[in-house]
Amino acid sequence: ETVLTQSPGTLSLSPGERATLSCRASQSVNSNYLAWFQQKPGQAPRLLIYGASSRATGIPDRFSGSGSGTDFTLTISRLEPEDFAVYYCQQYGNSYTFGQGTKLEIK
Amino acid sequence: EVQLVESGGGLVQPGGSLRLSCAASGFTLRRYDMSWVRQAPGKGLEWVSAIGGSAGNTYYADSVKGRFTISRDTSKNTLSLQMNSLRAEDTAVYHCARDNVPESFDIWGQGTMVTVSS
Asked: What is the mean pLDDT of residues A46-59?
């Protein structure tokens, strides 16, 4: 099983700042099948990024994904108030596993 | 509108059974791989089970293998999860999700709560 480790566990930033979230895999992710999801309280997860770097339909361009192999990053260039949420990475190249999540909170 | 709506959750005693349903609208379910993902209270996301769109092959997480069964009814455009021998650790919100390869899980339902307690 591919284990995904996200860091940091909690990230405290202010609106307008840049956020960098990390996801490290225990083994290389097949075909870079790495996705990022955003989840707000009481809501279903929302797909942001797939294939490590492709934005899903309707996702603003302040969200970007990068990385390959075992190290991946989600960057939010300028935080908007609605971006404060929990973010999960997921690999779907070898079955499916999720990271434990990073909580992005307002500083 | 493309949508998934789950139903069937509730309170069940340890060792009991429950059947969850997921109604798809706006797309044909059998053309996609579909999954169930759960989230225990205050915890992260855990993939539970998947069914392939074409051949209908099924896959399970080790934590539910032998206890849960995923299936679909193409005439009703509905996905199901039969859960047997339920344990306290199965308590969670269960979401169904569409796997739009290579885009991963692009559509999610709002979820249905399952509570296993005596």
From this structure: 97
CA distance A98 to chain B (A): 6
Determine, for residues A56 and B106 on separate chains, whether the beta-carbon distance falls below 8 Å: yes
Under 8 Å CB-to-CB from A60, ≥6 apart: which residues?
none
**How far from B48 is each of B45, B59, B95, CA to CA, in Å?**
10, 8, 10
Q: How confident is the model at residue B48 (pLDDT cuts 50, 70, 90)?
A: very high
CB B47 within 8 A of CB A97: yes
Under the banding of pLDDT at 50, 70 and 90, the label for residue B54 is: confident
Exposed, middle or buried by CB within 10 Å (0-12, 13-18, 19+), for B107? Answer: buried
- Alpha-carbon span B30 to A43, nearest angstrom: 26
- Positions of E strands within B1-118: 3-7, 10-12, 18-25, 33-39, 45-51, 58-60, 68-73, 78-83, 92-99, 105-108, 112-116
Query: Under an 8 A CB cutoff, do B99 and A37 touch?
Result: no
Q: Which of residues 75-94 of A touch B (CB under 8 A)?
A: 88, 90, 92
